[in-house]
Amino acid sequence: MDLSVVVPVYNEEESVALLCEKLHAAVSGLGIAYEIVLVDDGSDDRTWELLKELSHKYPCLRLIQFRRNFGQTAAMSAGFRESK
Q1: Closest CA to 32 of 6, 4, 3
Q2: Is the CB of residue 11 less than 8 Å from the CB of residue 43?
Q3: pLDDT-derived band of residue 46, with 50, 70 and 90 as boundaries?
Q4: β-strands 34-40, 3-9 pairing
Q5: What residues have CB less than 8 Å from 16, skipping those under 6 apart?
Q6: What are phi and psi for residue 47, nearest 5 degrees?
């Protein structure tokens, strides 16, 4: 793996599809192996369901879900820990 992009998300159902689209477009053209690690920090909207759907469209996505909101620092740490 050449590049890991780690992004914490929380209640982002309205923007997570555009986020994935733009990140994929920006990184896929680099010609390197990459992953996008999205950490759902305990969202209580449809963010997690949308991320699961998007993972079928973008195989580069790796998803982590927290059962409750632990904050941005914990989400970033988990994403770094799980990245390849």
Answers
A1: 3
A2: yes
A3: very high
A4: parallel
A5: 9, 38, 47, 50, 51, 54
A6: -55, -50
- Which residue type sits at 61? L
How many CB atoms are closer than 10 A to CB 32?
Answer: 10
CA atoms of 67 and 73, how far apart (whole Å): 16
**Segment holding 79, helix H or strand E:** helix 72-82
Using pLDDT thresholds of 50, 70 and 90, give the confidence band for residue 22: very high
**Mean pLDDT across 10-18:** 97
HEC states along 49-78? HHHHHHHHHCCCEEEEECCCCCCHHHHHHH
Rounded mean pLDDT, 41-46? 97
